[in-house]
Amino acid sequence: MKTALGKLILVLGAALTAGAALAAALASRETDNWSDDELVIMSSIRLSELERAPADPSNAVEQSPAAVHLGQRIFADARFSSNGAVSCASCHQPDKQFQDGLPLGQGVGTGKRRTMPLAGAGHSAFAFWDGRKDSLWSQALGPMEDPLEHGGNRLAYAHLINAHYRSQYEALFGPMPDLRHLPNEGGPLGTPTQRAAWDALKDEDKREVSRVFANIGKAIAAYEKTLGYDQSRLDRYIDGVERQDRTAQQLLTAQEKNGLRLFIGKAQCVTCHNGPLLTDQQFHNTGIAPRIPGQPDPGRGAAIAKLLRDEFNCLGPYSDAKPEQCEELRFLSSDDHALDGAFKVPSLRNVAGRAPYMHAGQVASLHDVVEHYNKAPRAAMGHSELKPLRLSEGEVRDLVAFLGTLTSNVIEEKR
Questions:
Q1: Residues forming beta bridges with residue 411, ordered by sequence position
Q2: CA-atom Rg of the chain in angstroms
Q3: 292, 377, 269, 117: CA torsion to nearest 10
């Protein structure tokens, strides 16, 4: 009798367990029953699909550990500024995803646009919100001479390298030029006194000092190119879905999963925010209102001319590339009015911790960002690519919840 009862209990227990497992499986199926098309898109946006950043032919030292080390030191050195208080790390703060959390960049003055994060930047052909630079090393030079950022000048920077980094510099780039006969300060973008000092230099001296300046950028770029992202909850979830790992599938809540469905479906976010870095690396006009009403920023539309005449571009005299290696620059259209008011699509990785948003910090929260795309207002300049999404308030909240699954650590690749 006891034996039969015991068997019955075991059978009932097994049935209950099987029932619970079936219920869990059905619940999981209801939540995670992704279509084949959805699975293809999901697979394409996970971090494990990210290939190594392409080599930059214009920077011959970018793979050098010595260049990484030198670049990291210069990156954190506030002496490379007019007031001795601003370094690259002042705006690109390591503990804030290599950005600063401010609406506008703050150097020796206040800039006109938001500081962009640096992780994964080596995967993009063009730098800055408007793409006015075509390499990481050229991008690094822009703020150093900008009067609102570092506010410094080429001659001062060359003297700094000579005084404090000469041995490291010469190990990478060869002998420093003789600067003893040159003034302490001078540059083409400095104060009137500094510009006059620069104009008085011989052409050969200008070229040698500019070469040192370019090499500073190349060392900084070597360091910046080591910055990337660790896996997020979304990446681990997608891996789990592919393995049919029910435990991993619980990494996202039902709300976050619905947000993911919207992201790759109805909300059309993946149209521009695609690939493992969740950006197409292109420039789009999305009708973001200017920070100052009545003063729209032309963005990419005005940047192409600057890029083409930049002495530090891929085709310039300080590039290490052969002309045929500069395809992005050689075939760039210089008269594309569709890019008026267009800005670079940023990576969405770690986006939940990167408020405020847009190119000048105009939007305070992710909820407001999604609402902007939902309503699709007209652009103040050019033509917005957006169309109203007609998302419900609940769908907006789900999409915002999903964006929180993209958070991870910024990591440094060791070389």
A1: 228
A2: 26
A3: 0
Tokens of 234: 């979304």
Residues β-bridged to residue 106:
110
- b/e burial code for range 125-149 (CB count within 10 A of at least 16 → b): bbbbbbbbbbbbbbbbbbbbbbeeb
Please check if 273 is assigned to a binding site: yes
Position of tokens 């214009």?
58
Q: Tokens 């986006």 correspond to what residue?
A: 351
**Is 272 known as a binding-site position?**
yes
The predicted pLDDT at position 213 comes to: 98
* Tokens 């950028």 belong to residue: 217
Last residue of a domain, one of 224, 259, 291: 224
pLDDT at 32: 84
Total domain count for the chain? 2
State the Cα–Cα distance between residues 274 and 5, nearest whole angstrom: 59
pLDDT at 281: 97
144 in Cβ contact with 150 (< 8 Å): yes
* In a shared domain, residues 253 and 136: no
404: in domain: yes
**Amino acid identity at 350:** N
The series of mean pLDDT values per 10 residues for the chain, 415 residues long, is 40 42 42 89 97 97 98 98 97 95 97 96 97 98 97 98 98 97 96 97 98 98 98 97 91 97 98 98 96 95 95 98 94 84 98 97 98 97 96 98 98 88
Domain annotation covers residue 99: yes
First CA to last CA across the chain, in angstroms?
Answer: 72
Range of the domain at 249: 34-51+230-299+340-412
Domain presence at residue 287:
yes
Would you say 159 is a known binding-site residue? no
pLDDT at 202: 98
Known binder of ligand: residue 181? Answer: no
Q: Is 326 annotated as a binding residue?
A: no
Shared domain for 115 and 170, answered yes or no, is yes
What distance in Å separates the CA atoms of residue 274 and residue 272, rounded to the nearest whole number? 6
The answer on 166 and 86 residing in a single domain is yes
Burial class (CB in 10 A: 0-12, 13-18, 19+), 78: middle
With beta carbons less than 8 A apart as the criterion, state whether 53 and 222 touch.
no
In this prediction, residue 383 carries a pLDDT of 95
CA distance 374 to 366: 12
Which pLDDT score is estimated for 10? Answer: 43
Query: Is the domain of 160 the same as that of 293?
Result: no
pLDDT at 249 (0 to 100): 87
